[in-house]
Every structure is written in structure tokens, then in C-alpha cells.
Amino acid sequence: MKENFEKLQAELLKSAHRGDLKRTAEILLKLGRVYQEVDMKEHALESYENAKKLYNKCKNPRGEALSIFNIGIIHEERGNHKNAQKMYKEAAEKFKRLNDTKNQAKAIYHHARLLEKEGKFEDALKLYKKYHKLCTLMDDSSLVLSSHAKIKSIEGYLSEQPINRDWLSLIGYPIVILLAEILTVYINVLAGLGAHVLILFVLLIHSSLVSNEKLKRV
């Protein structure tokens, strides 16, 4: 590891001295991975960011996309999920423009997994479906099966959530109606009537949403 690191450092100095932007960026990308392997995240991030800048200067979109993806991984490892998601999304878009299905799928998978960790299951599901389509295009049976299983798992979890909301509605609405009655009888008739109208409006919206949700499942 030490010999590899020293070799890369020496090559970096030579390529930088020659003004070879592409080669310097390639070495910085490799250095970033070496730093990452030994858990030197700050140095890895710096190397990836410098590689990204150089790839951008020499108009190498593939190298830039790889750098952005690796920056995302470092942000995720450091717990900076917002920046990680931004990087994964940007990398996926760049890989898509390059027709690099494999790396596009990889970036989307990392983004979806991170959303799932944060409990954003509906957003994660959308990305897992995109990932599944790309796995199908790549004709990778193991990835197709695993992504399909992940989609079904999240769909199963989400299908249970409306039941919980319905129970809350059954408990919550009678309490609100009781309060509206008390308001009408003992405090202010107009305010009480207004509360009843508001309750009816909320019930209509809730009924519409439930109907739409059921139609989606059919």
C-alpha cells in the first residue's frame, strides 16, 4: 500500500509538471481510492474534488462523473446524506448522457439505498424501479432478481401504512367532532358551525385520497 501510494505521488508530480490534465486527474482519482481504503476521508475527498475540476477542464465527462460518484460515497460515509444524494443524482444524470448503463445503475442504487435509510420509502421506491429497469437492460439476472425483491419489500411496507392512517382517522375524527359540538353549544354558535364545515371539507379530501390510493393498487 505504501509503495503504491508513493508511486502514485511521484507520477502525480510528473504529470502535473508536464501539464497533462487528463493524466493528473486519473492519478488523483486513483489516489482518492487509496486514501479511501485507509480511511483517510478528508484526503480522499480532496483528491476526488481536484480530479473532478481537472476532468471538467479537459472536457472528460466520464472521468468527471466517476469523480462526482466517489465524492458522493465520501459524503455518505461522513454522514452528510444531503450532499451525497446530490452527488449520486448528478453522477447518474451524467452517466445516462454517456450511455453508461452500468455506472448509471450504480449511482441510482446508492441514491435509492440512502433514501431508504432515511425512511423516504416512496422516493426510494421510484429509484429502485429505475434501477430495476437498468438491471433488466444489462441482462444481469442476479441484479434483476434482487432489485425486484427490494421493490416488492418496499411496496409491501407502504401498503400497510394506509391502514395505520385509517385507524388514526377513526379515533381522531370523533374527538374533533365532539370538540366542535362543545364549541357550538357552550361557546360560539358561528364558530362551531365553521368547525363543522371544516370537518366536512377534510372528510371529503380524505375520502378522495383514499379512493385514489385504492385505484392505484388495482
What's the layout of helices and strands?
Layout: H1 2-18, H2 21-37, H3 41-57, H4 61-77, H5 81-97, H6 101-117, H7 121-138, H8 141-187, H9 189-217
Helix pairs in contact: 1-2, 2-3, 2-4, 3-4, 4-5, 4-6, 5-6, 6-7, 7-8, 8-9
The name CATH uses for the topology of the largest domain is Serine Threonine Protein Phosphatase 5, Tetratricopeptide repeat
Low-confidence stretches: 214-218
Q: What's the overall average pLDDT, rounded?
A: 82
The CATH superfamily of the largest domain is identified as: Tetratricopeptide repeat domain
Strand content: under 5%
Question: How does the overall form come out from the CA principal axes?
Answer: elongated
Query: Total number of β-strand segments?
Result: 0
Describe the structure.
The chain has 2 domains: 2-160, Alpha Horseshoe (Serine Threonine Protein Phosphatase 5, Tetratricopeptide repeat); 161-218. The protein is built from 9 helices and no strands. It has helices spanning 2-18, 21-37, 41-57, 61-77, 81-97, 101-117, 121-138, 141-187, 189-217. The longest helix has 47 residues, at 141-187.
Provide a quick synopsis of the model.
With 218 residues, the chain is mainly α. Helix content is 90%, strand content 0%.
What brief labels describe this structure?
single chain; 218 residues; mainly alpha; Serine Threonine Protein Phosphatase 5, Tetratricopeptide repeat; elongated; disordered C terminus
